[in-house]
Amino acid sequence: MSQPRQSRALVIVNTEFWSSDGGLSARRGARREAEKLSRALAQLDYKVKLMHNRTAKEMEDLYQQECGREHGDFFVSIISSHGEEGAVLGSDCRPVPLARIFRLLSPRSCPLLAETPKVFFIQACRGAALDRGVSVEAD
């Protein structure tokens, strides 16, 4: 009897940044959050790949590699990094356009994932300006 294919999750967390002009501030606490998310997904029977401090090229390569892997019912992607409008930053401070990631996983580029629902969680700023945030009321 064959085993059912296991759903996959790719979690990328960038906490340290460097570039020729000095880099960006470290993201304290992001590693711990990503590890907790990875454990929660593993408890839901996902095969989780957790990657730390990847350059823009390495991030794109990770998504390209997913196109050659067998997936179960779902694919979950979590990226936690600095960002800018429409992009997340690799640990080398280079942007990875979100549209590029979505294109890499599109049915045309990635037929193995064509019928697989894909869920993306992005935790990143979209530039230097601060927003007003939201108010939350709890009982």
UniProtKB/TrEMBL annotation:
Entries under Gene3D superfamilies matching the protein: 3.40.50.1460
SMART domains: CASc (SM00115)
PROSITE patterns: CASPASE_P20
GO molecular function annotation: cysteine-type endopeptidase activity
A UniProt-annotated Pfam family: Peptidase_C14
Domain of life of the native organism: Eukaryota
Matching InterPro entries: Caspase-like_dom_sf, Caspase-related_regulators, Pept_C14_caspase, Pept_C14_p20, Pept_C14A
Protein name according to UniProt: CASPA protein
Lineage: Eukaryota, Metazoa, Chordata, Craniata, Vertebrata
Gene this chain is encoded by: Casp10
